[in-house]
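Changelog note: in this version the structure field was regenerated for every chain. One regenerated record is shown below for reference.
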Amino acid sequence: MSDGFRNPSLAVDAICLRSGGSEVLLIKRGRTPWKGKFAFPGGFVDYGEDPEIAVLRELFEETGIEGSEPRLFDVKGRPERDPRKHVISIFYLVDVDDESVPEAGDDASEADWVDLAILEAEEVAGDHFDVIEQLRK
């Protein structure tokens, strides 16, 4: 049922670190926008779903990895950050087993642990590079 308001969509993204924080779990997007670019595993929150549950679901759907203990890291919400529509994303730090081996699923074409130090802005989707830079500090 429409209430007549135009509201932004809500998304979640999982930040999973290992090797003392020098490696991050990323996917390569299999669809537009940003097809072929690195991104944090994530997606849209379903209606009636808690964002903390959504981030664990999206992490599993896109990487096959079970996560736990989501903790708020950042929120990105510039209206023009996603070319599809106004999307607000909640970025969570999520605990995972350091020995987890990711397998790409859902709309991810690849999933792997990536060295934070080697990532370049042009390789990363949208404003996810801003989060990479925050993690490097």
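Spot check on this record: The chain has two helices and eight strands. The mean pLDDT is 96.
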